[in-house]
Write a sequence for this structure.
C-alpha cells in the first residue's frame, strides 16, 4: 500500500540538485516556466516590462490563421464559410491583443493580432451581435439566417493587458484528471474564444520526473511510493502528500505525455503561451539514501496525511538561485510564475519580508548576494517573475505589498474552492476590481486571470469576469444580466431576467427563493423550457434551494435530539411512540435528499456515472480501471485514507458510518447511470410545490440563516433587485400564482 506524507529537499549542497532542475527544464519548450511555491515550505496592466516582451506566439501567422479557422468550423460547422480569418500582428498596439470586425461581401472578416485575438473577436461577434453563448455548461449558437452586418470601417477592440492567465494546480485534479483529447479540444476552443493566452499546462510531468529520478539512481519502488494516484496528483505536485492513490502505471505516463503534446501543439497553434512546471521543491522519501550529506527538516502535517520535509530556511535563498539558474539553462528568457498564497500566510510573511523576497536584485540585472530574507525566490530579478494574485476578487494581496514591490502581477479571480457547485460570486468586486488594480499607485499589473479550483459551475460569473479582458470600464450590471439571459437561453424571458437580477447582488436567502419562484414560473413557457441551458440552470437553482432548506430540517433534528426528545408523546389523546419528533425530522431530511438525487439524475451535468466511467475509460487493464475508479470515488468522498484527522474512535456511530458507508463506497464497483432520466421541468415544479411552503412557514429561520455579505449594496442593480424582491416576496398571491398549474402527479418522482 503506498505511503502518504513525507517530503524533503537536499539543501547543504545546492549544486547537487541542479540535475533535477536541468532535466525537467530541458524537456520544456515553452518560454514560461512555472514553479509552485507553497506556503507550507516557508512558514509561509498598468506597466509594461521589457523583460516580458519576448513572450510572443511561437506559431507563424499562417499556422495561427489556420488554427483559428478550424476553431470556427468546430463551433458553427456549416456556417464557417461566413467568416474570413486573418492574423496580422501589426493592427494593434504592442503587447496588447487586438481584433477588427467588418462585413465584406456578405461575410464577416475577423482580423486579429494572434489566433487567440481572432477567436476572441469571433466570440465577441457571436455574443454581442448574434446573442449566442458558449460556456462549460453548454452552447446556444442559433445564428440568424443572415449574419448582422458591421459596416466599414468596422469595430476594433483591444485587450486591456498583455497576459490573460488560466487555471489552478487543483483544477488539474478536480476537473481535468480524466479528460481525453476530445474534452481538451473543446476546452481549448473555449479558452481561445474567452481570450486566454497564458494557460497552465501540467499534464504528463510525472513521466519527466520519473526519467529524471531514475537517472539520479532512484529505483521504481521509490517512485511508486512517491507519485500519488491520478486524482491526487495536484496535491502531490504541491508536496502536500505522496503515494496516496498510486502507483502510476507505465500506461498512464504514456497517455499523459501524448495528451500533453497535443495540448501544447493546439495551444501554441492558436498563439497561446503555455505555462509549464518547474521544480516545486520536494523529492522522494528515498533521497537521503542516495544523498546522505544533505540536510532535511521535518515539516508539519498537511490535513490527515503524514509529515512532510523541507529545507532549512537559511538555505532558501541559495535554493531559489539554483531554481532560477536551472530555468536559465533551458531558456535565458525564462519567466518564473509564482502563486501569491505564501504572502497570505499569517506570521512570517509581513511586508518587509515579502519586500526582501521580491526586490533583492536590481531591475533586470544580476542576482542578490547575501540573502536578506528567508525566501526561495530572493535571487529573482524584478520583471523575471510574474506573481499570480490568486484571489483578487476577495482578498487581493498586491495592495498590501505595494504592488509586489515592483514585480509584475496578474489580477486573478479564484472564486471556486474544492470544485464545489454552490451558486455564489462577487459581481461588484469582479466588475470593478481589475480597474482598481490597474489604477493602483505604481501598479505593476500585467494581466487578469482565472484561478478557480474547479470548473463546471457558475457559468455566469466566469462569463462576466472574462469580459474584463476587453471592457474599458465597469458594466451596468442590470443591462448585462438582461442580455445574458437572451444569450444563454436564446429567448428574452422577463421572469428569468428578474430572477437573475435578484441573484446578481449578494442575495439574501429569501431572494434566492424568489428567484426560484420566477424560474419555475417561466418553465411553463415552451420557449424557455426547450432550452437545455435553462433546464440546467433550473436544476442547479433548485439544488441550491434544497440545500438551504435542508438546514431547517437538520436544525429541527438537532433541536429535538438535544432536547432528549426520545420519550413517548400524547398529542390530542393519541399516544405517539418514543422519539417521534426526532424520527420525523430525520425522515424529512432523508426525503429531501432522495428528491434532490432524483432531480439531479435528470441532467447530465450532475451524474456520478460520467465521472466514474471517464475514469475507467483511461484504464487499459482491469487493474488500472479499478485503481482509477477508486481514485475517482475517493476524491469525492473520503479524500484520503480516512475522513477525520484521527482514527474513528469517538463513537460507535462514527465507526459505523466509516465502515458501512464511506469506505465501502470507495471500493464499490457498482455501475451508475451515464444518461439522465426523468423530466427536469416536471421534477423541478413538483419539488418547488412540495418544499416552497416550508420556506414561507419558517421565513424567520431562513431570514437569519444568511445575511447579505457586502457592505456596499448600492446602485441601480441593488435598487432594482430590492423592487423585484418587494414585488414577489410580499405579494400574498405569489404562491398561488406560481404553483397553481402544477399537477399532483406523484409518478414523476
Amino acid at each position: 500500500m503506498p505511503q502518504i506524507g513525507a517530503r524533503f529537499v537536499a539543501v547543504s549542497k545546492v549544486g547537487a540538485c541542479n540535475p533535477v532542475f536541468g532535466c525537467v527544464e530541458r524537456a520544456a519548450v515553452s518560454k514560461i516556466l512555472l514553479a509552485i511555491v507553497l506556503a507550507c515550505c516557508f512558514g509561509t496592466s498598468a506597466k509594461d516590462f521589457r523583460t516580458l516582451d519576448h513572450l510572443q506566439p511561437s506559431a507563424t501567422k499562417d499556422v495561427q490563421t489556420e488554427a483559428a479557422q478550424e476553431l470556427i468550423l468546430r463551433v458553427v460547422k456549416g456556417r464557417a464559410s461566413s467568416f474570413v480569418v486573418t492574423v496580422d500582428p501589426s493592427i494593434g498596439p504592442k503587447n496588447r491583443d487586438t481584433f477588427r470586425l467588418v462585413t465584406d461581401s456578405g461575410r464577416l472578416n475577423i482580423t486579429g493580432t494572434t489566433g487567440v485575438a481572432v477567436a476572441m473577436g469571433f466570440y465577441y461577434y457571436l455574443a454581442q451581435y448574434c446573442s449566442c453563448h458558449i460556456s462549460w455548461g453548454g452552447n446556444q449558437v442559433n445564428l440568424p439566417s443572415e449574419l448582422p452586418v458591421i459596416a466599414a470601417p468596422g469595430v476594433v477592440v483591444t485587450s486591456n493587458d498583455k497576459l490573460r492567465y488560466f487555471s489552478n494546480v487543483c483544477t488539474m485534479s478536480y476537473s481535468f484528471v480524466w479528460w481525453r483529447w476530445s474534452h481538451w479540444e473543446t476546452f481549448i476552443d473555449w479558452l481561445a474564444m474567452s481570450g486566454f493566452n497564458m494557460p497552465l499546462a501540467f499534464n504528463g510531468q510525472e513521466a519527466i520526473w520519473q526519467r529524471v529520478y531514475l537517472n539520479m539512481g532512484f529505483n521504481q519502488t521509490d517512485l511508486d511510493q512517491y507519485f500519488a494516484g491520478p486524482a491526487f496528483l495536484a496535491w502531490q505536485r504541491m508536496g502536500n502528500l505522496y503515494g496516496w492513490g498510486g502507483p502510476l502505471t507505465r500506461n498512464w505516463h504514456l497517455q499523459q505525455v501524448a495528451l500533453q503534446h497535443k495540448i501544447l501543439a493546439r495551444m501554441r497553434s492558436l498563439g497561446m503561451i503555455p505555462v509549464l512546471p518547474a521544480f516545486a521543491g520536494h523529492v522522494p522519501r528515498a533521497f537521503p539514501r542516495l544523498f546522505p550529506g544533505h540536510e532535511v527538516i521535518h515539516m508539519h502535517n498537511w490535513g490527515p496525511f503524514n509529515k512532510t520535509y523541507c529545507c532549512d530556511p537559511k538555505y532558501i535563498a541559495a535554493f531559489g538561485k539554483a531554481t532560477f539558474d536551472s530555468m536559465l539553462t533551458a531558456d535565458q528568457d525564462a519567466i518564473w510564475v509564482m502563486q501569491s498564497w505564501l504572502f497570505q500566510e499569517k506570521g512570517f510573511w509581513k511586508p518587509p519580508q515579502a519586500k526582501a523576497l521580491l526586490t533583492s536584485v536590481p531591475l533586470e540585472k544580476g542576482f542578490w548576494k547575501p540573502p536578506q530574507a528567508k525566501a526561495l525566490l530572493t535571487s529573482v530579478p524584478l520583471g523575471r517573475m510574474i506573481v499570480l494574485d490568486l484571489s483578487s476578487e476577495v482578498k487581493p494581496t498586491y495592495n498590501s505589498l505595494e504592488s509586489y514591490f515592483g514585480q509584475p502581477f496578474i489580477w486573478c479571480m479564484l472564486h471556486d474552492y474544492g470544485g464545489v457547485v454552490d451558486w455564489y460570486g462577487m459581481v461588484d468586486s469582479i466588475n470593478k476590481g481589475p480597474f482598481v488594480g490597474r489604477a493602483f499607485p505604481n501598479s505593476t499589473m500585467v494581466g487578469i486571470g482565472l484561478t478557480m479550483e474547479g470548473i463546471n459551475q457558475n457559468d455566469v460569473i466566469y462569463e462576466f469576469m472574462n469580459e474584463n479582458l476587453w471592457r474599458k470600464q465597469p458594466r451596468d450590471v442590470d443591462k448585462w444580466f438582461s442580455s445574458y439571459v437572451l444569450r444563454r437561453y436564446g429567448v428574452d424571458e422577463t421572469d428569468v431576467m428578474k430572477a437573475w437580477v435578484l441573484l446578481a447582488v449578494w442575495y439574501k436567502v429569501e431572494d434566492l427563493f424568489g428567484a426560484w419562484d420566477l424560474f419555475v414560473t417561466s418553465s411553463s413557457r415552451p420557449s424557455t423550457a426547450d432550452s437545455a441551458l435553462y433546464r440546467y440552470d433550473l436544476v442547479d437553482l433548485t439544488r441550491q434551494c434544497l440545500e438551504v432548506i435542508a438546514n431547517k430540517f437538520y436544525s429541527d433534528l438537532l433541536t429535538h435530539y438535544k432536547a432528549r426528545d426520545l420519550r413517548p408523546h400524547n398529542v390530542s389523546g393519541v399516544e405517539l411512540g418514543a422519539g417521534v419528533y426526532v424520527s420525523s425530522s430525520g425522515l424529512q431530511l432523508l426525503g429531501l435528499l432522495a428528491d434532490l438525487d432524483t432531480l439531479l439524475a435528470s441532467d447530465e451535468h450532475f451524474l456520478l456515472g460520467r465521472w466514474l466511467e471517464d475514469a475507467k475509460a483511461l484504464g487499459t487493464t482491469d487493474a488500472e480501471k479499478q485503481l482509477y475508479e477508486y481514485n475517482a470515488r475517493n476524491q469525492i468522498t473520503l479524500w484520503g485514507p480516512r475522513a477525520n484527522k484521527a482514527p474513528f474512535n469517538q463513537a460507535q456511530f462514527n465507526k459505523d458510518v466509516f465502515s458501512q458507508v464511506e469506505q465501502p463506497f470507495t471500493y464499490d464497483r457498482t455501475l451508475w447511470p451515464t444518461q439522465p432520466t426523468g423530466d427536469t421541468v416536471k421534477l423541478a415544479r413538483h419539488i418547488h410545490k412540495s418544499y416552497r411552503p416550508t420556506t414561507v412557514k419558517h421565513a424567520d429561520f431562513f431570514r437569519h440563516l444568511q445575511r447579505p455579505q457586502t457592505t456596499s449594496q448600492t446602485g441601480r442593480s441593488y435598487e432594482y433587485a430590492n423592487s423585484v424582491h418587494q414585488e414577489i416576496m410580499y405579494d400574498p398571491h405569489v404562491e398561488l400564482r406560481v404553483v397553481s398549474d402544477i399537477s399532483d402527479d406523484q409518478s414523476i418522482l
In short: The chain has three domains: 14-54+165-475, 61-161, 502-607+675-739. The first strand starts at residue 32 and ends at 34. The chain has a mean pLDDT of 81. Residues 39 and 342 are 4 Å apart (CA to CA).
